Amino acid sequence: MNKDIEIKSALEMLITEVEPLSPVSLNLMDTLGYVLAEDIFSPLNIPPFDRSPLDGFAIRACDTVKATKDEPVTFKIIDFAAAGKPSKMVLGPYQAIRIMTGAKIPNGADLVVPFEETEFTEEWVKVFKTYNSNSNISFMGEDIKEGQKVLTKGEVINPPEIGILASVGKNKVLVYDRPKIAILTTGDELVDIDKPLEEGKILNSNSYTIAALVKRSGGVPYILPHCPDNLEKITNEITSALQWADILITTGGVSVGDKDYVMESFKKVCDKFLFWKVKMKPGTPLTAAKYRNKLMIGLSGNPAAAFITFEIFVKPVIKKLRGLEKVYPLQVESTLLSNFTKVRKQNRYVRAITYYDGGKFYTKLPDSHSSGVISSLAKVNSLLFIPAGMGPFTKGQKITVELLESEDLLP
Ligand SMILES: Nc1nc2c(c(=O)[nH]1)N[C@H]1C(S)=C(S)[C@@H](COP(=O)(O)OP(=O)(O)OC[C@H]3O[C@@H](n4cnc5c(N)ncnc54)[C@H](O)[C@@H]3O)O[C@H]1N2
Ligand code: MOO
């Protein structure tokens, strides 16, 4: 059995075991946050015709050659063109068509003079300077050309991409399906948050933290009813969840206690056992196995350990399943604003609060780093990796932190 393995090995093992999920075709408005499973080519020019970017008058540039401030050239207004209502007239010498922003440039015209640069009545318009041909015209295809690739497979669909997809008429889009993540908390001590607490029991917070982390990572969380410390029950729950879920995550029951049955259940259910225990704190007893193409990942029950190991090990897996190529977090250099004196023999991930100010990142560390303490997770948005034996760290020192919510900023 792979036991006490390096963080990097665990991560590589997990990542190489999964592939992006099968693509599905979704209605455009349902694709927000999904990852494109196809390159998008525009079937049309945008704009689809030469159009005016201004409100003014469409005229011929050659007719303005003699125009000056003192001796303006006068044009006869022969028609009106608005966005969606093109003029059918063909513009002749010294004729003008009153034109609105977004309207098609009339035949014969090669220039739009904005209202502000003219004097006009309903019948005529005066122009006071010479203009170059093709001034103030947005040309057909100058934004997007017919056949041009506008978006690339693997890109996340955010509001700008929704707009681009709409511009090229994509009402159905091929995206990678979102992974369905079954969340199973285990432990005789756990009570649902809406039930009264009895002696020795605690409220089940992990289901909610993990579900929220899954959502933030772009997966779809399914919280299963929590399971007591019972090998058969845990095994049955896992077996049935793996029928429909893409990944199963458990919390609790992965250590060496008399009632820690999760690893045993994994072994019963899996085709391939991957590892148990990773050389890091918190969350050492992390365990993983595979059934068909589905991963089971057992996190420590300690709330902060579950949070941190999710971010380090589960999030990249979810991102890969979603079709993303960049699955690891953004690392930035930051200045430490706290002292951290504990030097440990184990690798550690320490919860951190990082902010950006005046062009630099700064990082504060909360007071408690115990894996059973949840209160100091408040505002945590980054992690500081401390390799075994390294430290102490002092205020003002430069450190590297991993940002937990910075997907859009990855280069
Ligand atoms: N003799 C040893 N004991 C322990 C070792 C060890 O090496 N030798 N490792 C410790 C480490 S490190 C960790 S981490 C924990 C992991 O234990 P489990 O993953 O089996 O987790 P549990 O014992 O089930 O729970 C730990 C802790 O977290 C609370 N918990 C569990 N589930 C939830 C939940 N859904 N919501 C909120 N809190 C939860 C649970 O009540 C425990 O207090 O093992 C050490 N022991
Ligand atoms: O590995 Mo554990 O989460 O530190 O108590």
Automatic annotation (TrEMBL):
Pathway: Cofactor biosynthesis; molybdopterin biosynthesis
Gene Ontology BP annotations: Mo-molybdopterin cofactor biosynthetic process
Cofactor(s) the protein needs: Mg(2+)
Cross-referenced InterPro entries: MoaB/Mog-like_dom_sf, MoaB/Mog_dom, MoeA-like, MoeA_C_domain_IV, MoeA_C_domain_IV_sf, MoeA_linker/N, MoeA_linker/N_sf
Matches recorded under CDD domains: MoeA
Keywords for this protein: Magnesium, Metal-binding, Molybdenum, Molybdenum cofactor biosynthesis, Transferase
Cellular component, GO annotation: cytosol
Signal peptide start-end: none
Domain of life: Bacteria
Stretches assigned to the MoaB/Mog domain: 182-320
Protein function: Catalyzes the insertion of molybdate into adenylated molybdopterin with the concomitant release of AMP.
NCBIfam families per the UniProt record, alphabetical: Glp_gephyrin, molyb_syn
Protein family according to the UniProt entry: Belongs to the MoeA family.
UniProt protein name: Molybdopterin molybdenumtransferase
